[in-house]
Amino acid sequence: MINCNTGFGKLKEVVVGNELCLTRRIADNTFKQFYKEAINEKVYQHIEALDGIYTVNQDLIDLRNKQLDDLADTLCDNGVTVYRPDVVNKIQMIKTPNFSTELSSASNVRDMTLVYKDKIIETPSYVRNRYFENINMYDIFADQTSIDGQWIRCPHTRMTDDRMDLQPWTDERDYNNFDRTKYDMAIDGAQFLRIGRDCIVNINSYNHYLGFQWLEAFYPDVDFHLISVADNHIDGALIVLKPGVFLVDPKYPNIKEQLPKKFQKWQFLYPKNLTENIDVSGMTDVDIRLASSRGMDINILSLDEHTLVVNERALGVKDILDQYGFDIVEVKLENGEIFAGGIHCSTLDLNRDDEFIYY
After folding, report:
1. What is the mean pLDDT of residues 30-40?
2. What is the distance between the alpha carbons of residues 45 and 104, in angstroms, rounded to a whole number?
3. Which pTM does this prediction carry?
4. Which of 51, 181, 199, 211 matches a 20 to 30 Å C-alpha distance to 120?
5. Which residue segments constitute the domains of the chain, with CATH numbers given?
6. Which is it for the CA torsion 102, 103, 104, 110, positive or negative?
């Protein structure tokens, strides 16, 4: 059954991702643009010299999958029904009229899908090798929507370089007056923060805006609020812990001012002593970093309004949650910096016991 109106109602059913079992990774121009804030230009020049291919240490891949298995077991132990995607353990080619690449796994399952109300919506990818990533969850989606709920897939996009908004995300844009035929829609599920009848959306490109407008049409009864606080995903910057309380990465001090006035009255918890950037040398052949350590600390999962699944290394986050009376379930999920995801990224809510109301 599909029912998700928030990110904090009692979690009943969830998908936990599986990391790609191959050491070989693809890094084309769409990959570069998506991770532009995280990838040092010198590192990307190194990747380009390798024809857009880099490799990840096999031991780290095995560890990542073991820790994802442990995360799934922990959620099961806490009464949550857990589903897992198909495993990708061999190269599978993708070819469209506009590009060719290799299939990625459904690891950070939050990214390519928005589950909101009674709908599963596959969002239009920003990165070519993620184009058919969700095919690894199609058995899950089919089963979940067999009785109730809707499963909607985004239109196929061209994803050519000339259809990407390449301006820095911090540049101002006029979303009311631009050439809509110039860009492809592209937005991730992890850019949406569901709070019942309100939804905060992080938008920073014309591609994002077109993707948002396509998706908005399926929710005429939702009040969407557009903000611009990070280059793409919001779940490394802002999390709703329960009605009235946000958890915020202090790196983003301008978040409060961008929110609607009613949310500015909520409590904002800013943890101290977030994990500094971890040394990624030797983890890949190009020492690539796809996500910040700080964002992985904030990247937590709510089991309900009182209980949160938190990475054991996120000491500052654990301290402030404990201070404010939350119960903490610790898990170990390492190397999110090179696998581009933490606990929240690696999970996709399917069913929560919550309401579609104004909080």
Report:
1. 90
2. 22
3. 0.96
4. 181
5. 10-279+287-353 (3.75.10.10)
6. positive
Question: Closest by alpha carbon to 10, among 263, 301, 223?
Answer: 301
DSSP three-state, residue 317: helix
Q: What is the pLDDT of residues 181-194, one digit of tens each?
A: 999 999 999 999 99
DSSP 173: -
Spatial distance between the Cα atoms of 292 and 320, rounded to a whole number of angstroms = 20
Q: CA 29, CA 43: separation in Å to the nearest integer?
A: 14
Question: How buried is 106 (Cβ within 10 angstroms: 0-12 exposed, 13-18 middle, 19+ buried)?
Answer: buried
If pLDDT is split at 50, 70 and 90, which confidence band does 298 have? Answer: very high
Give the type of residue at 111: D
Tell me, what's the pLDDT at 67? 98
Q: At 339, phi and psi to the nearest 5? A: -100, 5
Write out pLDDT tens, residues 198-240. Answer: 999 999 999 999 999 999 999 999 999 999 998 999 999 999 9
Nearest to 340 by CA among 169, 104, 171: 104
Asked whether the predicted pLDDT for residue 267 surpasses 90, the reply is yes
Rounded CA separation 70/65 (Å): 9
Q: Which residues partner with 348 through β-bridges?
A: 15
Cβ–Cβ < 8 Å for 235, 259: no
Residue 286 has what pLDDT?
Answer: 94
Query: Considering just the CA atoms, what is the radius of gyration of the chain in Å?
Result: 19
Mark residue 149 as left, alpha or beta (left: phi above 0; alpha: psi -120 to 50; beta: remaining): left
Question: What letter would DSSP give residue 257?
Answer: H
Phi-psi label, residue 55: left if phi above 0, alpha if psi -120 to 50, beta otherwise? beta
Q: Which amino acid, residue 231?
A: D
Q: Percentage of residues in the chain with pLDDT exceeding 90?
A: 92
Of 145, 141, 64, nearest to 348 by C-alpha is: 141
The DSSP result for 195-207, as a single string, is EBTEEEEE--SHH
Chain mean position to CA 103: 18
